[in-house]
Design goal:
Layout: H1 11-27, H2 33-43, H3 47-62, H4 69-75, H5 93-116, E1 120-121, E2 128-131, E3 137-140, E4 145-150, E5 155-161, E6 163-167, E7 176-180, E8 183-187, E9 191-197, E10 200-207, E11 210-213, E12 220-222, E13 226-231, E14 236-241, H6 244-247, E15 254-261, H7 262-269, E16 276-280, E17 288-294, H8 298-308, E18 311-316, E19 319-324
Parallel strand pairs: 5-7, 16-19
Antiparallel strand pairs: 1-4, 2-3, 3-6, 4-5, 6-9, 7-8, 8-11, 9-10, 10-13, 11-12, 13-14, 15-17, 18-19
């Protein structure tokens, strides 16, 4: 395993990287006996090596990543306590078959609940453009789902989760309607976005006019570059001036931020990137940034962030660790 021993970097920083890379390699499931010997030799080099490994392991646990008993035995050889319930021998064949069936049924249930029961659905980080039968177009954002009913008597979409953008073909005789959370949207021909944000429903208009109502709110007409937020808990309906092109830029593969905190930006990126992000930076809620991020090239933005600010971004397989640079003071 090649480790970064750049003599220009501080020793503790080098050890941290080495420990993290050993840990990620170990969790990959293909840790060879030769690598195990190399790892043991590295760990026994000095107490500082063991301390760096302990810090890396603590980070892994904080991120919610499991440490199996087999991993614990390697990481903590002096610890004789074995994780509760760890099987020292394989269970009987029947039990294994039952476990297999349980896993398969659970996975099938999850797939049906999350994807199969909808006409259209996207996974984390996935986008989808759908040409509808009436000539309109629907774009589904990451981790979104919708059912579509287009016929000679109706044009209706139910947004079950996530966010969608619609470019609706004009038809005076047949309105295009969308149900999303507590929101009910009606248009003749326009371009607008709909987002289910927790219990709220947010409608943003880019072109044309949109009629929006809630279960118990009056109907309002929303003009271009305005958004309306429906909150069912207090029956409020709030209209605000927005830059619709910026807010709906995800439809073109971009995320545009203006005066957002680092924490807000990283949180939003979490909806498009399956990796867990550990943001360990004191100014994460006060540092405000402007950014235009290509969703398909998120790592490029992380690299730019590291160059522009006193931050260090470390990629640990399925984890991104953002922290203050050691020489930032």
């Amino acid at each position: 395993m090649a480790l970064n021993n750049d003599p220009c970097r501080p020793e503790d920083e080098v050890l941290e990287d080495e420990a993290i890379h050993w840990l990620v390699r170990m969790m990959s499931g293909s840790f060879s006996s030769a690598e195990l010997k190399q790892f043991e030799a590295w760990r026994r080099t000095s107490p500082e090596h063991q301390a760096a490994l302990s810090r890396a392991t603590d980070l892994w646990v904080q991120l919610g990543k499991p440490l199996e008993a087999s991993h614990r035995a390697i990481l903590y050889p002096s610890d004789n306590v074995v994780a509760s319930g760890w099987p020292f021998a394989l269970p009987p064949k029947r039990a294994m078959m039952a476990l297999f069936l349980l896993v398969i049924s659970t996975m099938g249930c999850y797939q049906w609940m999350s994807y199969w029961r909808f006409n259209y659905a996207t996974r984390l980080g996935e986008f989808r453009e759908v040409s509808l039968n009436d000539g309109s177009t629907m774009w589904l954002n990451t981790d979104s789902a919708a059912n579509v009913e287009i016929s000679g008597s109706q044009r209706h979409v139910t947004l079950a989760r996530g966010e969608a953008f619609f470019d609706v073909k004009h038809d005076e005789q047949l309105p295009f309607t969308v149900d999303a959370g507590s929101g009910h949207i009606r248009v003749l021909g326009t371009a607008f976005g709909v987002k289910i944000d927790g219990e709220n429903t947010v409608v943003t208009v880019q072109r044309g006019k949109v009629s929006v109502s809630g279960d118990r709110q009056k109907t309002v007409t929303v003009d271009p570059d305005r958004s309306v937020t429906l909150n069912p808990s207090d029956n409020s309906l709030t209209v605000a001036q927005v830059d619709a092109a910026r807010q709906l830029a995800w439809q073109k593969g971009l995320l545009i931020f203006e005066n957002n905190t680092l924490n807000e930006i990283v949180h939003t990126l979490g909806h498009y990137d399956s990796r867990a992000v550990y943001l360990d930076y004191p100014q994460k809620d006060t540092l405000r940034l402007n950014a235009s991020i290509n969703i398909a090239r998120v790592d490029d933005w992380y690299s730019q962030l590291e160059k522009a600010l006193p931050l260090r971004v470390t990629r640990l397989g399925p984890v991104i660790w953002i922290r203050q640079a050691p020489d930032a003071g």
